[in-house]
Amino acid sequence: MTGYADRPWLKHFTEEQRQDVEHPPSVLHSFLDAAGRVPDHQALRYFDGALGYRELDDLSDGLARHLVARGFAPGDRLAVMLQNVPQFVVAVLAAWRAGGTVVPVNPMYRQGELAHILQDAGVAAIVCSESAWHDYVRATAAGSPVRIALTASEFDLQTRDDPRVLTATRRPADDARDLLAAARAGGPAYDAVLPAADDTALISYTSGTSGRPKGARNTHGNLSFNAHRQIRIQALGDDAVVFALAPVFHITGMVCQLSAALAAGHTLALAYRFEPGVVLDAFREHRPAYTVGPSTAFMALLARPDATAADFASFRLISSGGAPLPPAVVEAFRSRTGGLYLANGYGLTECSAPCASVPPGSEAPVDPVSGTLAVGVPGPGTMVRILDDAGAEVPFGTQGEIAVTGPMVVPGYWNRPEESAAALPGGELLTGDIGFMDEDGWLYVVDRKKDMINASGFKVWPREVEDVLYTHPAVREAAVVGVPDAYRGESVKAYVSLRPGADADPAEIVAYCKERLAAYKYPREVEVLGDLPKTATGKILRRELKAQAG
């Protein structure tokens, strides 16, 4: 019988696509090479503005000089808390040029969420929008290791004021330097040391068993392997435009869009954040060849009455990842776009985005029993196994935990040796996802082993939401579960019991959480019960509540 070691998925790739480069150059190396080869080629587009490779090279070098002059040293961490704007890219390249590590931060995070990351990662410098700096980042950074602050205006490099997206009013900070001004001013020369494969490129925060986000250490080797694998297999062509549909602060956007585009010398088109009408306008203007995003984004695009097949005519490939992709959405997308196939994919922060995808020219099968669409096949150089609870391989077609090995798998979590050892025994990533593989190498994800909630591709740990609920003066007990949601895949629902004599309206509790959590984390529904179900030892039974919620 064929086993996983025989890698049946390789049959789906050409001989050329299988030829992995064992140690491809880092994304920074490849970007600098592109800047030398095609200095006048557009590297970034942002609405009506653009930056060439030479300009992006100069700006990132200037910002690196500024950071080093202010005491930023090799190994230091730079938090980048921005939407899809050019300054994000400049900051990432500058940190790497200065020998530093980037900590991507979701701009939707609130004060408590940000404070944890700044402290846990020991962040030395931060980049955020001017509005966020004034609203709460300044106060949060004051109690953290941050000693360098830079701000970015959403309006820079743009000549068209689009009120649907750009709503912030420019308020220059008096205690944080403007990023582009600092980059243009530059600073003294510094000793540039290009990164080694084992150097940490990113600390990407993801929730874990404790409920507190922990940082996955994505190395430069992790990023470059997946970026160059994508470049080689997709073969988009020298003049391709990649549209950043996924946020670049997320591992998917960072690797599949930003890293792959700049390493290949392509053009990366940015449009602040996802808004269906703005995205369609950007498709019409920039004529991209490739993009990737969660299935919810494509559902939102299909819901636009003005979306036509002509808007998608430039695409050669479109990928979906980060949220379950129903087969019906694939067919609806094909119908509305004139035959364009929406290719599924699977990955995690800990494997630097994709570890399985649908090869170009193929279509993922649907499991006839469950109706589940395959997420793809593992890539060349990647090993995926399905394991039982004892860690033994199960036969093809049998469900078990998905385990991944390969050059894209992180070496561990930042300052979490015990959790690293548990999740990555022997370097093999135990994903916590339940799935199976068929004999042709197609991988199916059918459930999650953990209680993690996946809302529109963003991961939500129930404990984090419960901790906020417990700060409400009327709440006695709290439990959070994920419930099916036709649009988001899952949404957050909270069950609470109240303190004796207390009174609280569910809508008021929702609003309370909304003020304290990122938009995708707060519960969309709160149900008040007299008591929550518990074990004999007093542990709240989430599984019973989840079953009750349906």
For this entry, give a set of tags.
single chain, 550 residues, alpha/beta, Rossmann fold, GMP Synthetase, Chain A, domain 3, nine-stranded mixed β-sheet, five-stranded parallel β-sheet, 16 helices, acid-thiol ligase activity, AMP-bd_C_sf
Description:
- This protein is an alpha/beta fold and 550 residues long.
- Among the domains are: 28-195, Rossmann fold (3-Layer(aba) Sandwich), CATH 3.40.50.980; 453-549, GMP Synthetase, Chain A, domain 3.
- Helices cover 30% and strands 23% of the residues.
- The protein has 16 helices and 25 strands.
- The protein has a nine-stranded mixed sheet, sandwiched between helices. Strands 4-3-5-6-7 form a five-stranded parallel sheet, with helices on both faces. Strands 17-18-19-20 form a four-stranded antiparallel sheet, with no helix packed on it.
- Strand 24 (489-498), helix 15 (506-514) and strand 25 form a beta-alpha-beta unit.
- The longest helix is centred in the N-terminal third of the chain and has 17 residues, at 53-69.
- The radius of gyration is 23 Å and the shape is globular.
- Keywords: Ligase.
- Residues 33-414 form the AMP-dependent synthetase/ligase domain.
- One of its GO terms (molecular function) is acid-thiol ligase activity.
